[in-house]
Amino acid sequence: MEPEPVTQGGMRLPVVLGRWYEGEMHVRLRRRTILRSRWVVLAVAAVLSLSACGGGGASETTSGSTEGESGELLGEALFNESVVGGLAGCVTCHSLTPATDLTGPSLASMGVVAASRVPGKTAEDYLREAILDPDVFLVEDYDAGTMDGWDEVLSDTQVDSLVEFMMEQ
Question: What is the model's pTM?
Answer without folding.
Answer: 0.57
